[in-house]
Amino acid sequence: MIKYWPYKQGIDLNNEVANLFFSTRQKFSYALLNKTNNLLCIDILDNYGRSVLFSVILMELEKLILDIIELDLNLKNIKQLNSKILYDLMQKSLDKFSSKFNFIDNINIYIKKNRYLKNILFENKLLLEYMLTYFIFGSYYIENNIFAFDNILTPKEHVAILFENLVIQISNIVMFLILENMSSLINIANFIHKNKLCNYSYLSIRSIALFRNSLFLQNLIDIYINKPKQIYSSRHKVLLLSANGILSKYIYISRYNDFIALSKFQLVFIFLIEVQDLLIPQIERFLLILTKVILYIIINFIGNSAIFCIRVILSSFNNIYL
Question: 25 and 90: one domain?
């Protein structure tokens, strides 16, 4: 039986929010292995490091919700301040996690200079605005044409998936910023080894260098290929926690406004997708027909050749006996 998220403010909504925070925190005791097909920045951490980082993010989210309630911000205020709220959440989470491991350097987030962070902020509605709306106001205040169901009938599982995705994505940003802030591979290795946070797959400087380069390439592919394709298909990739590790799945979401904001290069890729969708079925149909014709010709040729050979053999036998 599907259970639905409360659609208005009240005791039921407060209880559901508290229960979701509790159940999510419980999942941090799982084996937090990356079971997706992509690299994550948190892959460089061991299970303990990921658990600590997730706990920091969860604590900052709790503080954020309480602050918004205390300031009595309405939904319009949250929409207007959404990017700033996300920025502050990233910065506070970064500072808190860094302080836990005596990382003295102050890391400031410069979004304009970083394509990866710009890409994350591009998705900020999915990362934060919807979650704050669900948690503080209820599902009734989500636009009715955004997801594949009526806003009042929002499944609890849907809200849980978005929440877990938010925690993992913010964690990725924190680790990305720490790695980017360190001037050398040796500093990265010293940081994760000294604090006993290192995933055994990245013990050597060479493996860390390969990890960073692979992340850089993956981010470019995500920005210019994967993201336009997801937007065009009205899909969004989310990360979630399970007993088997961190998994990925796609959810439907209306992305009309995101489509309008795409760059010319990204639109060119979407045009290529259109061409692919148009031509590939035709090419496949043509190749199928061509294959059938070739097989028909080969079969007829072999059949006629066999009949001709049999006739020649029979004719030879007849000539011998005559």
Answer: yes
Mean pLDDT, rounded, for 279-292: 78
d(CA 192, CA 198): 5
User: What domain range is 251 assigned to?
Assistant: 11-262
Is the same domain home to 310 and 208? no
Q: What is the pLDDT of residues 203-236, one digit of tens each?
A: 788 888 888 889 888 888 888 888 888 888 888 8
Cβ 210 vs Cβ 248: under 8 Å: no
Tell me which amino acid residue 165 is. N
**pTM beyond cutoff 0.85:** no
Paired tokens of 8: 């208005």
Place of tokens 């990233």: 90
The 10s digit of each residue's pLDDT in 14-45 is 999 999 999 999 999 888 999 999 999 999 88
Region of 147 please: left (phi>0), alpha (psi -120 to 50) or beta: beta
Residue 255 lies inside a defined structural domain of this protein: yes
How far is residue 84's CA from residue 132's CA, in Å, rounded to a whole number? 14
> Is there a domain that residue 304 lies in?
yes
Determine the residue type at 313: I
The residue from 262, 286, 305 where one domain ends is 262
Rounded to the nearest 5 degrees, what angle is found at the Cα of 113, between the Cα atoms of 112 and 115?
85
| Structural contact between residues 146 and 254, judged by C-beta atoms closer than 8 angstroms | yes
